[in-house]
Design goal:
By secondary structure, this protein is mainly β. The chain has a single domain, classed as Methylamine Dehydrogenase, Chain H (7 Propeller), CATH 2.130.10. Helix content is 2%, strand content 38%. Strands 4-5-6-7 form a 4-stranded antiparallel beta sheet, with no helix packed on it. It has a 4-stranded antiparallel beta sheet with strand order 8-9-10-11, with no helix packed on it. Strands 12-13-14-15 form a 4-stranded antiparallel beta sheet, with no helix packed on it. Strand 1 and strand 2 form a beta hairpin. It starts with 28 loop residues before the first strand and ends in a 7-residue tail after the last helix.
Length: 190
């Protein structure tokens, strides 16, 4: 198991998350275990394959003619699937991590498109807000991400590799996600 180091939660989240974002369909676009992006049987991008040993089904996010994919190298890429041009690459891992030789930096969580930004996280101890226009990172918080469970206009619920759920605001503030069963009332009135 990996451990998320350095994340400081600002207490337990007590607000409302809001309505979930609905991802656009990706029309037969997928990423394989060798960091290759395919549209049907046509390869549109070939990243460097790694032998990281993480077995996980990964998915891409799409908007217009662009596809956003997380690679096992810890990079988030934006590729035009029609022209096969690479728009940008963003590193989604902590470069100055205390154990700088991190073995696993895989991005196994599906990237989230939210307005002018892309949210992505990976096992390289980083969950980042990336500017869609140029791939520059706005901020990153030190969470080793297994999945982005839910996304709304203002929040992302992130599942860390140790099983902890965090709520991360659009501004990068981190909260612990309350356990649903503790907040749910099983008696009248609901």
């Amino acid at each position: 198991m990996f451990r998320a180091t350095g994340v400081e939660a600002s207490g337990v989240f007590e607000g409302e998350l809001g309505a979930p974002l609905l991802p656009a369909p990706c029309n037969n676009i997928r990423i394989d275990a060798n960091n290759q992006i395919w549209r049907g049987s046509t390869r549109i991008f070939a990243g460097i394959p790694t032998d990281s040993g993480i077995i996980s089904e990964k998915f891409v996010a799409c908007r217009g003619s662009y596809v956003y994919a997380g690679l096992s190298t810890g990079e988030l890429v934006k590729v035009n699937y029609r022209t096969r041009d690479l728009a940008w690459v963003a590193d989604i891992f902590m470069a100055n991590h205390p154990t700088s030789n991190i073995l696993f930096v895989n991005i196994i969580a599906t990237p989230v498109i939210n307005g002018e930004f892309i949210f992505a996280g990976g096992l390289g101890n980083a969950f980042c807000k990336v500017r869609d226009a140029d791939g520059s990172k706005v901020w990153c918080v030190p969470i080793s991400v297994r999945d982005i469970v839910k996304s709304t206009r203002n929040y992302n619920v992130v599942l860390a590799d140790d099983g902890t759920k965090y709520v991360v605001s659009r501004q990068g503030k981190v909260y612990l996600m309350p356990e649903a069963d503790k907040r749910r009332r099983w008696w009248w009135p609901f």
